[in-house]
Every structure is written in C-alpha cells, then in structure tokens.
Design a protein that fits this description.
22% strand, nine-stranded mixed beta sheet, three-stranded mixed beta sheet
Length: 387
C-alpha cells in the first residue's frame, strides 16, 4: 500500500489498548506480512537522552513492546538502537537504555545495540549531504523501523519521523552536522537527505503523550491520544504536525519534502485511514520559544536589525545547573566554557543551534526571547524569558 497512512486513537500505554491500537494502525496500511523469518530489523526509537518515559521526551517502551511482539512472532531478529546525544559509547548507551526502560524489552529475538562503530557511505542523490556518516548497526539491517515521538523542537519547530532519523548519525558527529548546517533550511535539507538515504520500511509516531513547549527535552508532556503509521516518514509528519496546529510551511523538514515532491502540500490532500483526525486537532499546542516565523521574511538590508531585535538565545538557569558539562560537550562551535561549575556562553561564537538546550539533563537551559519578539508573537512557554 504505497504511501498509505493510518491514525488510530490510543489514550494510554496500557498493554491491552496499546497492542490493539498498534495492531490496527499497522493492519490498515498493509500489516507486517513483509517480515520474513530471520530478517534483521532495527527498531529505531527516539532515545534523545537518559530520561524516564513519563517525561515524554523518548518513545514509550509500551508501544515498542507491542511492535516487538508482532515482529518476533514472524521470526524476525530485532535490534533496538539509537545514537543519543553525546558520545556514542557503550557506557552511555547502557545508561540511556536503563533510564528509558528499553532494557526491559530484551528477550529471545530482541537485543539492544551496543555496536558503536560507524561507517561513511556515498549519498549521490543527496542535495546537501553527499557523504553520510551512519552507525554501523543501521547499515547491517535488512529493514529499519523508525518509531518516533511527537514533540516540538526549538531549532526545527517539530520533531517526528524524519528528525528521528538524525539518531542514525553517530554521537558527536551530529554536532559537526549542526556546525556545517547551522541554518534551519540547510539542516532540514540534510535531514530529508538522511531520511531518503535510510528509507525506513515503516515509520510510526508515538503521539499518545507528546511534548509541547521547548522540546525536544525541555518541554511539558501533553496528551494527544494517537498512533500514526505510514511507509512514508514525510507523510507521517504531515499528519502529525496538522494535529498540533502547525502548517507545513512552518516545519522546515516538511517544507523541504514538499518541495521535492515527497509528500502532498497539505494534510487535507491525504486520505487518512482509521480514525478521523479532524476532531483531534489541538489548537493551543505550545510551540518552542524560537521566533522562527521571521526568518527569511524581511529584506537583507534590515536582517541585522531583526536579529538584534528578535533573536532567541540559550540561557542558563544556574539554580538548576549541576555542572555536569553536557552542554559544553554538546556545543558544536565550542561556545560554552565552565566557570565555577556554571556554563558561560560566548554569544559571538554561539550559532544558536540549541544543542545545549536539547541535551541538558536538568532542563537548566531555556530559551531567552526579547520583549519585542514576545509582544509580536506571544508564546505560552515557561522556558521563554524576557530580555
């Protein structure tokens, strides 16, 4: 079923409801008949950082468990794996697997990935990413299933099926990608190139409980009550973003995908199987604090003034900071230094990729916005602060 997409109501991670909802979502788009005994299948969840599933920053293990049962019943060998933020090491992976409760999913036919090797592969069809750095365990898979989390994102507005695949890039190489492609448009082109390179056999989005506000790690859990499944990750993101009130042109990855003809230009053009998404749209879903709507809308001659007047900045809350140095290690341009165990940000060096905010385990880095930006675009965000 080429480019079929399903949306099924699911309001809890309780095993019975989760199993039934996921089974229906998959059945509507053709099921898992393509899975053959002995296939090596990677399930790639969003495991951004060591956080409990209740924080809504990572894919919930209850849904992954429901998928695993179906895959192992068909004789597949399943590997659960991701490259979280920070160094790609076995030690960090174990911490992440334990914190996110992925470790509880190991069983006969299901293992956690500890292969930390990476490979470089040519990507001649890429528009900006001609050479791809990929974790080796991904390249060894017969099929990849992306199991994303529905969240807002300070840099890319939204993170879902396509952005989830950034986790196939190993460890701190992700920081190099941020440095090379610091503009959101270029970064989106890279993400779409990456998605087309990986070509997941199936993309599922955990929207039972999503994250609103300053995601992907510093926002708040928000019930959405859906599971989305498609063979097309761009289509899955198109429907997911419509559910939280985002227009395609507001999401850089979708804007790029639509421009390349990889998905329709609007959710209204899509025949969604399963439950009607219209009554489920959340119009007050909190967005991230970055005022990205101004980007590219004004003339070149006044862009410097616009940046001064409207540009968001990462800001450290010293009361929450524990001096773990995660932000310093994650910063692509090395704009962060520790002074008396508190991060100090060099504003001239900072490229505002918000990696520090994404990867802070204490949510001690927020988004600071100017008064003018808040006046023109009020946001209900606890992380956005007046200058």
């Amino acid at each position: 079923m080429q480019d079929a997409i399903s949306l099924v109501r699911c309001t809890t991670y309780d095993q019975q409801q989760a199993d039934a909802a996921l089974d229906r979502a998959l059945h509507l788009i053709g099921g898992l008949d393509w899975v053959k005994p002995g296939m090596r299948i990677v399930v790639k969840p969003n495991l951004l950082m060591p956080k409990h599933p209740d924080a809504a920053g990572t894919t919930h293990p209850g849904l992954i468990d429901a998928l695993l049962r179906q895959l192992t019943e068909r004789g597949a060998q399943v590997i659960i794996g991701d490259s979280p933020g920070g160094p790609f090491s076995a030690r960090l992976l174990k911490v992440v697997y334990d914190s996110t409760r992925m470790a509880s999913l190991e069983r006969d036919g299901v293992s956690l990935n500890y292969n930390i090797q990476s490979v470089q592969a040519a990507n001649p069809s890429g528009t900006i990413l001609k050479q791809v750095d990929v974790a080796e365990f991904i390249m060894k898979a017969d099929a990849v299933i992306s199991f994303a989390k529905l969240k807002t994102h300070t840099f890319m507005t939204y993170t879902g099926a396509v952005k989830n695949l950034f986790g196939v890039v190993p460890g701190t190489i992700k920081a190099e990608y941020h440095q090379r492609m610091s503009d959101p448009g270029d970064f989106a082109r890279m993400l779409v190139d990456l998605a087309e390179f990986v070509r997941p056999r199936l993309s599922i989005i955990d929207g039972v409980i999503g994250m609103e506000g300053n995601g992907p790690s510093g926002g708040q859990p928000r019930p959405i009550g859906v599971i989305i499944a498609s063979v097309n990750p761009h289509l899955a993101d198109l429907i997911a973003t419509a559910l939280i009130g985002l227009k395609p042109e507001e999401v850089p990855t979708l804007k790029t995908a639509i421009g390349r003809g990889l998905c329709p230009a609007s959710a209204e053009q899509v025949d969604v199987l399963g439950d009607d998404p219209s009554p489920l749209v959340i119009h007050d879903f909190l967005r991230a604090g970055q005022p990205s709507f101004l980007r590219g809308l004004l003339e070149v001659a006044i862009r410097k003034l616009i940046r001064i007047s409207f540009q968001s900045e990462p800001e450290v809350d010293s009361g929450l900071c524990v001096g773990c140095r995660a932000c310093e290690q994650a910063c692509p341009p090395k704009a962060i230094t520790m002074v008396s165990q508190v991060p100090q940000i060099d504003r001239k060096t900072c490229i505002r990729c918000f990696c520090c905010q994404e990867l802070c385990p204490q949510s001690a880095i927020g988004i600071k916005r100017t008064r003018l930006a808040r006046m023109l675009q009020p946001l209900k965000s606890s992380e956005a602060k007046d200058v």
